[in-house]
Every structure is written in structure tokens, then in C-alpha cells.
Design goal:
Order of helices and strands: EEEHEHHHHHHHHHHH
Largest sheet: 4 strands, mixed
Shape: rod-shaped
Radius of gyration: 29 Å
Distance between the termini: 37 Å
Mean pLDDT: 90
CATH architecture of the domain at 5-122: 2-Layer Sandwich
Helix content: 40-55%
Structural class: alpha/beta
CATH class of the domain at 5-122: Alpha Beta
CATH superfamily of the domain at 5-122: Potassium Channel Kv1.1, Chain A
Bound molecules: zinc ion
């Protein structure tokens, strides 16, 4: 006698093949998978040895190792009840993505990616995890940007740590630290105002006004400890442009605004981010 239980919904008397995931038995229809069954469909057609034919009795089901009951149920929900309308749970979408990748079911993979794309509030850690594990490159950069620039480490919870894994968590912590340091450097040190316009009659005073205004109007905003109110690096060039810089020679002011627009001052954080993304690509995917 099998100790396994028949699934209440997905054990069809007229199904063709019996599968087992965990402690549950499923009797499903091989033809329902159609052309989209991928490797799972191949399982229906395993070369059968007469004495150990699998999939015909509860005692000898086709085993699905490394597939949980929940995952398989979610997958079958899509196969049998694909017409159900959203919202779908994140768990269901993640499970369908996993099994579709594992079995090469392209329609299932595309279905899961489409709905994960259009589901708001997928945690960045989960999106990054799914992106790396199931090869959805488009999700990597936005998820990393969120984790590195927008989400304080203190807001991460148990699930987030599980999704990120230790090496990625360490990388994100280091990127945040490097960017915080960069923030202090940029706040403290205005880009150098060396060459002055021909019309500039008092270059020392002009430079001093540049540095002091930078500190008062840029530095302080960069260092605002209320992170939600701190100035974002990418806003830097526009803020510099919007300020009056009263007292500077017009030509000198225009030149400095231009230099900042070209990347002086605020581009360091983006550099750190890009280097971090490259390192992420080198980390093993668990
Ligand atoms: Zn000047």
C-alpha cells in the first residue's frame, strides 16, 4: 500500500498517467500538455520496461524528485485552469517559473514572466532571485538599483535574506557602503573650479563662492540623515543648474554647471553601481 494520498483535485479517474510529488499522487492527462509540455511531456513517454512500468498505478507513479506538492499544484492549476484571471500569488508565479524552466515549458515560462512583470510590489529581493536563478536579465538592474539606492538594509526581512543569499547580501552591503562614502566625498568636496572666465576679475572670490554655495546647497542636502529627503545623486546636475550661485562671474558659473552636467561630481555612485553589477554577474547562482 502506498502511504501517499491522492490529490483532491488533480487525481482524475480518467487521467492517463500517475505522478508523485512529495507525499501526493496526481493522475493527469498527458494530452492536456499538448505541444507545450516540454520535458514533462517526455516523462509521459518514458521508455517503459514491462516489469517496472511507471505511471499506471499508485504504487509505481512517475516520481518527480525535487518538486514540492505546492509547486506541482501551482503548475497544474495553470495547465487545467489557465483561464483563471489574476491576481495570482507571487508564490504561484515563482513556482510556475521554476517548473517551466526546469521542464523547458516555454509557454509557462513566458506566462510567469509576463505576470511577474505586471504585478506591482514584487519585492526587489525576490525579483533579483528569480532573475538570476531563472535567467530573466531584464529584472536584474532595476532590482539591484532598488536594493542599493532605495531600500535601507534595516528594512530587509527574513524572506529577503533567503532570496538574496549571503554573497549577494554582502555585495549589496559593500556597494551601499561605497556609495555612502562617495556621498560624503561629493558633499564635502565641490568639483574643482580652476579655470576662470576671462571676465572673472576676482578668481579667489569666485572659487570661494562656488565652494561655499556647494557646501550649503548641495553638501547639506546630500548628507540629510533623513534618507527619504536626502538629495539623490542623479538629481545633482539639475539642482546645480537651478541654483543662483550669486556672486560668481556668469561665465565661470556656466562653465561649472556644464562640467557637472558632463559628469563631474555626481557620476561616482553610478560607477560604483556598475562595478557592483559586474561583480554580481560573477557570483554563483544558488
Ligand atoms: Zn570665476
Amino acid at each position: 500500500m502506498s502511504l501517499r494520498q491522492r490529490h483532491p483535485r488533480y487525481y482524475f479517474a480518467k487521467g492517463t498517467d500517475i505522478f508523485a510529488a512529495g507525499q501526493t499522487l496526481y493522475k493527469i492527462h498527458s494530452d492536456l500538455l499538448g505541444h507545450n509540455g516540454g520535458v514533462l511531456q517526455d516523462l509521459f513517454q518514458l521508455p517503459q520496461n514491462d516489469s517496472v512500468q511507471e505511471g499506471l498505478t499508485d504504487e509505481r507513479p512517475i516520481e518527480l524528485p525535487q518538486v514540492t506538492e505546492r509547486e506541482f499544484e501551482h503548475f497544474l492549476e495553470l495547465i487545467y485552469e489557465g483561464h483563471l484571471l489574476p491576481p495570482y500569488t507571487l508564490q504561484k508565479l515563482a513556482d510556475v517559473l521554476k517548473l517551466s524552466m526546469q521542464w523547458g515549458v516555454e509557454t509557462g515560462r513566458l506566462w510567469a514572466i509576463h505576470h511577474l512583470d505586471t504585478t506591482p510590489n514584487v519585492p526587489a529581493s525576490l525579483r533579483l532571485h528569480l532573475a538570476r536563478r531563472y535567467n530573466v536579465p531584464d529584472w536584474i538592474e532595476p532590482a539591484m538599483r532598488d536594493l542599493v539606492f532605495n531600500i535601507p538594509l534595516g528594512n530587509l526581512r527574513g524572506d529577503d535574506f533567503a532570496h538574496l543569499g549571503y554573497p549577494v547580501y554582502i555585495l549589496i552591503s559593500k556597494m551601499k557602503e561605497a556609495i555612502e562614502r562617495e556621498r560624503r566625498v561629493v558633499a564635502y568636496l565641490a568639483p574643482d573650479c580652476r579655470t576662470h572666465n576671462a571676465a572673472c576679475t576676482n578668481t579667489d572670490r569666485c572659487s570661494l563662492i562656488w565652494r561655499e554655495t556647494w557646501w550649503l546647497k548641495i553638501g547639506r542636502r546630500l548628507l540629510n540623515p533623513e534618507t527619504s529627503q536626502a538629495m539623490a545623486f542623479e538629481a545633482g546636475p539639475d539642482v546645480v543648474k537651478s541654483l543662483e550661485w550669486a556672486g560668481m562671474t556668469a561665465g565661470c558659473r556656466e562653465r561649472m554647471v556644464e562640467l557637472v552636467a558632463e559628469g563631474n561630481g555626481f557620476s561616482g555612485a553610478e560607477e560604483i553601481f556598475k562595478q557592483g553589477l559586474e561583480k554580481l554577474g560573477e557570483l554563483p547562482v544558488d
